[in-house]
Structure formats: C-alpha cells, structure tokens
Amino acid sequence: MKNSKKILSAIVITLITFQLTACGTSGKQSDGSSNTSNTSIVSEQSGIEETTQAKLKETQEELFEFEETENGLAVTLYTDSEANIYNIPSEHEGKNVVEIAYPGFGGLTHLIEVNIPDTIEIICENAFSNNENMTKVNIGNSVREIGDHSFFRCKSITDVTIPDSVESIGEASFGYCENLKTVTIGANLKIIPVTAFAETGIEEIIIPSSVVELKTACFAGCKNLKKIVIPSSVTKIDKTAFQADTSSSASLPDLVIYGESGSYAETFAKENSIQFVAM
C-alpha cells in the first residue's frame, strides 16, 4: 500500500515537472501575464489526484471482508495490517453495509482513526477494543446499538460523540479509555450500563432526558469527573455508579451532581454524601 502511494506520488510530480518545463518559454505572453497553459496544468493535476483517490478507495474496499445478514452486509475484517485509517465502506457490490461484526478490528496498534458510515446500524462487542493508539472515531448517524467492550481500553481517544440514533450501549463500551475527556450522549439512549465509562478521564457530562437508569460502576474511577447533570427522568442510580475506585465504597471526592430540586438525583446525592446543586 505504501509503495503504491509513493509510485503514484512520483508520477504526479513527474507530470507536473514536465508541464512546467514545457511551458517555461511560452508560459507567459509578451505583457508578462500567464496564458491558459497554467489552467491546463492545474486541471490535469486535479484530475490525476481525483483518479488516485478513487483507486485508493477501491483498493481499500477490496481489503475488507464481508458476510451476508438479513438486512444487508456485515463487515468482519480488514486485511491490510499497515493501514492507519479505516474508512468502513457503506456498500459493497451494490449492497449496504449495515453491521460491524465479529471478529471486528480490535487490538491493532497501528490503527489511529476509524470512520463509520451512516449505513451502519450495529457495532458488535469488542469491535475496536484495545486499540491503544486510536485517537479518533466518527460514529455514523444510523448506529442503534454499540456492543459490550466495543471501544474498551482505547486509551488515546480524547472525545466521543454518541449520535441520537443510538438506543443502547454495552457494558464497558468505553471503559478504561483513560484519556477520554469529552463525551456527548445522544437523545435516545435509555440506560448507562455497567462500567460504561469507568476509569476514563471525563471531566463533566450531561445525561440526556431519555436516560432512566445509571447502572453499576458506570462512572467508577473517573477521578477527573467534577460535574454531572442528571435529569428528572433518571429514577434509579446504583450506589456504585460514582465510586472512587473498585476497592473503595467512597464516592468520587470532587463530584458535584446538578439536577432538579426534589428529583431522584438530589435524593441519591444526599444519601451518598455527594454535593448537589439545584438547577
């Protein structure tokens, strides 16, 4: 893959150099202004770049492996061990790719960025787990389900947006992403599951009004978490949701819960000696 890119780059440079040399004596009119040959060079260069990108896209798609599902195709594997960016294809041979399935793309030290298209509806468990050097993930706007441990221990990710389409995320789906500081949760998630964001670097977070429950240790060990906004829709919070660490029953020391006066969030905060601020 890398050699192909180098060869294509060399071809582009050679063609541009040839054009510039050929236009050296006739590239300007008698008044010193450039003639239309420069426009031709730019057009040719643009055309070559577009062709190169098209070929690279086609080549990348050929390296994915697929399997049939009831609703379309599931992408299961990528065979290029050197690629740093995975652009999950939205279709293959005229069929939509709707799922990222087992075995997925976990444990890849070279992977830096993943782009998930809007056709994907399901991300399987462990899909991208233990990709410790992955810094960026773009989740498509049709994803409904994110499986258990999907992004577990992706230690270099700093921010994640969970789109409004997502209705469920799995246990420890973003757990132990220690540099994850910013999380935006979409408007249709119903439950924050067990250890979903445990041991991350989240500093503050807003729980949407679609959520009704925060489960066991969902934010446990988030030592930087200082502010969480909990809506009145939440009627159940496990007592370990904000525990300082797995070996202690104490809550996160600097946490402040924001919510409506008289809400369950206020009751929980008082029962667990957590500061509460009415909004």
Topology:
Blueprint: H1 2-22, H2 37-62, E1 64-68, E2 73-78, E3 85-87, E4 91-92, E5 95-100, E6 113-115, E7 122-123, E8 136-138, E9 145-146, E10 159-162, E11 168-169, E12 182-185, E13 191-192, E14 204-206, E15 213-214, E16 227-229, E17 236-237, E18 256-259, H3 264-271, E19 275-278
Parallel strand pairs: 2-5, 3-6, 5-7, 6-8, 7-9, 9-11, 10-12, 13-15, 14-16, 15-17, 16-18, 18-19
Antiparallel strand pairs: 1-2, 4-5
Describe this structure in words.
The chain is 20% helix and 22% strand. It is of the alpha/beta class. The chain contains 3 helices and 19 strands. The chain is elongated, with a radius of gyration of 25 Å.
Percent helix: 10-25%
Q: Helix and strand succession?
A: HHEEEEEEEEEEEEEEEEEEHE
Total helices: the number is: 3
What structural class do you assign from the helix and strand content? Answer: alpha/beta
Query: What about the largest sheet?
Result: 7 strands, mixed
* General form: elongated
Low-confidence stretches: 1-37, 51-59
What share of residues are in beta strands?
A: 15-25%
Report how far apart the termini are.
55 Å
Report Rg: 25 Å
Number of beta strands: 19
The average pLDDT is 84
